[in-house]
Amino acid sequence: MKDHIIVCPFDEQLLAKLSERNVVIKSHDLNILQSIQKHLNKSLRLHAIKIQTDVPLSAISFQEDWLKLPLAIYSPEFGNYRDLLHQLNLIRRLNIRIFLSSEYDDNYTGLKILSSLNINCGLYFNNGSINWEAMNDLMHYAVYSKTKHAHIEPFDWLVSNYEPTDYMDYHSVYFNNPAKYLHVNEKEQIALNEQEMLNNRIIGDGIPSLDRIHVNEHYNDFINARYDIMLQMNECAYCPAFRICLAKFEHLTNKNDTCKVFFSDFINAADYSFKQRNSKRTKIWQL
Amino acid sequence: MDDSALTELSWDNLIYIADFLEISKEHKISLLGGEPTLHSHFVDFTTYLLERNFHVNVFTSGIMSKEKLKDLTLYLSKIPPERLSFTCNMNHPKLSTEKEIDQIHEFLKAFASFTTLGYNIYQTDLDLEFLVQYINKYKLRRHIRFGLAHPIQGGKNTYIPASELGIMAKKLVAYCGLFEQNNVAPGFDCGMPMCIFSEEELGKLSKANKGVLKFGCGPAIDTGPDMMVWSCFPLSGLHKKSLYEFNSMQEIHDYFKNIHNKVKAEIGGIFEKCVTCVYLTNEACMGGCIAHSINQLKDEQMNRIKAIYS
Asked: Are A193 and A173 in contact (CB under 8 A)?
């Protein structure tokens, strides 16, 4: 089975071996885009390029050359609106999603600015603190705002894919849901997600083993582990929003003022949107 | 984005307002103050609204530092003037310092094609020649926006009492010849009653304005940094509501229009004769500024309808 999308570094030898698979190339260096541009050919099935940069968004010099690349740019902070201004037209033409860190409060507003200017964007989480109120406000904007605006992730992804009876892993947005993405390094070692790769928790070796991932014990343990929490007597198991959070914030001590409030509102928004999508209104014939 | 929510409009609130206007199918927005160019994100907000395809009009004194003007010039002077405009509110040069006059001149030079002069009439003595001189010197838009100072409810300010508006009207019309010679159209902001002008004066004003003259008074919705909305500046102390209580501009307009109508039904206009005036009935004139009308009741017992007081 070649249904997983492979997340890997830009390594020509490795990419040659992955030619029959969809890949996400990840890097910390924006300059690599030039090299990838040259490498674009029919054998490379490029799903996306994820660049995690340390540069504020407004300091990134966006290039016309990037027009053909499917980009996910992860930047720690929005930066200065004025510096971004002259690049807005180009950014809107790019095939891009811009992600900003949840760590800085200004980024929540920055994402609203980007979305309202029709630039697809999203919030990514790192180890820093989260302003849950600002995130809830941003989610409400993403889901309920009646004005035309670009998607804000992970909210739009979850709301668009939401099934009321299913578990949803919004880590798909970050290429970190092992049910859909697997991470492979230059040594062809396989990990379940980025963090697992960083922690050197390797579950398989060699590209051919990707085809046998569904019988991989570690893979299945990891996939099933998310449901084990339901058997535990902890707060997450009782949380009404567990289905969309999957205990990603289990480590938080004060859930009642943080994740629980947010995810409860989020699941309500997803329910609302699902009902809107599936309402049995008469569809009038089209002219 | 370190906004001080109490004194300045924040980014989040600006986005909310822009969305609100978009939903309401309003494509124009005015930025006013105080002095809006003093806002720490003035250029950012203006360019953002332009990016959102709003036409932006800025009410300014034109008095700003060299650095601020440089900033404005760098980011705004290349915007097509049909998308961005300034209304530069002028005082007579005698009332300004030399430094202020220099700053205004620099502003008018930099944004000539964007700028209409505004003049707020608050006394019967009028000396308006300088406005025409400025328009010619800097090649500004050939229009002057005449506003009438109105009593601010709950505040103290200088304005012409209703009984003296006729004197002001005569002096204003005396400039019609100068305006005509220089192809300058004198337009009125709200609150000017029609009957302070004679038939002949109305004819002159009408010619100068291509046949369009307005003697209106209605909601001209303002929103504050705290997201409170009010009917217009003179009524900023009355019937304030939160923007969040409404779903569209039309709803806000209807809300304040309803209050206007109630007040008008009670007191007609600024003159006693307004009540029976045919032009009030057919809405060719709204009977002057409603704040003027309410102000005339300030010394009487508060036994009229609630809309007048709260």
From this structure: no
Whether A106 has its CB under 8 Å from any CB of chain B: the answer is: yes
Q: Is A109 on the interface with B (CB under 8 A)?
A: yes
Using DSSP's 3-state secondary structure scheme, residue A123 falls into strand
Q: What percent of chain B has pLDDT over 90?
A: 57
pLDDT grade, residue B6 (50/70/90)? low
* Cα–Cα separations (whole angstroms), residue A108 to A73, A81, A83, B153: 16, 14, 18, 39
Half-sphere exposure of B82 (CA within 13 A, CB side): 0
Map tokens 């040259």 to a residue.
A38
pLDDT at B203 over 50: yes
A156 in Cβ contact with A123 (< 8 Å): no
User: CB distance A116–B23 less than 8 Å?
Assistant: no
Taking the C-alpha atoms of residue A269 and residue A140, their distance in angstroms, rounded to an integer, is: 8
Alpha helix locations (H) across chain B? 11-23, 42-51, 66-76, 98-110, 129-138, 165-173, 176-181, 199-208, 249-267, 278-281, 290-295
Q: Give tens-digit pLDDT for B80-130.
A: 999 999 999 999 999 999 999 999 999 999 999 999 999 999 888 889 999
Q: What is the distance between the alpha carbons of residues B155 and B14, in angstroms, rounded to a whole number?
A: 27
pTM value is 0.90
For chain B, how far is it from start to end, CA to CA, in angstroms?
A: 36
Q: Using omega within 30 degrees of 0 as the cis cutoff, is the peptide bond preceding B34 cis? A: yes
Query: What distance in Å separates the CA atoms of residue B85 and residue B88, rounded to the nearest whole number?
Result: 10
B chain contacts of residue A147, beta-carbon cutoff 8 Å: 19, 22-23
For residues A32-61, average pLDDT: 91
Contact by Cβ (8 Å): A130, A139? no
**Residue B5 predicted with pLDDT over 70:** no
CB contact (8 A) between residue A109 and residue B1: yes
Does the beta-carbon distance from B43 to A113 stay under 8 Å? no
Q: How far is B52 from chain A (nearest CA, A)?
A: 7
- The angle subtended at Cα A159 by Cα A157 and Cα A165, nearest 5°, is 115
Query: Best residue in A89, A116, A143 to probe B by mutation, most B CBs within 10 Å?
Result: A116
pLDDT above 90 as % of chain A: 75
Residue whose entry in the numeric block shows the structure tokens 């902890």: A234
Q: Tell me which long-range contacts A254-262 makes (C-beta under 8 A, separation of at least 24).
A: A257/A132, A258/A130, A258/A132, A259/A132, A260/A235, A261/A132, A261/A136, A262/A132, A262/A135, A262/A136, A262/A139
Contact B12 A147 (CB under 8 A): no
Angstrom CA distances, A173 to B199, B205, B262, B270, B275, stand at: 71, 64, 55, 63, 66
Amino acid identity, position B219: P
Taking the C-alpha atoms of residue A109 and residue B282, their distance in angstroms, rounded to an integer, is 48
Interface contacts (A, B; CB < 8 Å): 44
pLDDT tens digits, one per residue of B124-158? 888 999 999 999 999 999 999 998 887 776 667 78
Instruction: Provide the total of helices (H) and of strands (E) in chain A, helices listed first.
Output: 12, 10
